[in-house]
Amino acid sequence: MKVTVDPELCEGNAVCEALAPDVFAVGNAWQAQVLAAEVAERDRDLVTRAAESCPRLAIILTG
Fold first, then answer.
1. Looking at domain 2-62, which CATH architecture does it have?
2. How far apart are the C-alpha atoms of 3 and 48, rounded to whole Å?
3. The whole model's pTM is what?
4. Within 10 Å of residue 38's Cβ, how many Cβ atoms?
5. Which of 25, 48, 47 is nearest to 35 (CA)?
6. Which of 1, 27, 42, 30 minimizes the C-alpha distance to 51?
7. What is the pLDDT of residues 18-60, one digit of tens each?
């Protein structure tokens, strides 16, 4: 699974970072950054939950 964040939608709410801190970080610009574009098997459930919990639906999962 690959993960990206749409910068046009992201508001930096940090829900993703709270749920999957090994995959997401919210920087000084209040935009979520993907730390690992390819999601490890052990993180798939957390990343899926983060995507579903994003208030702006800015997280895009493929594969």
1. 2-Layer Sandwich (3.30)
2. 9
3. 0.91
4. 10
5. 25
6. 1
7. 999 999 999 888 999 999 889 999 999 999 999 999 999 999 9
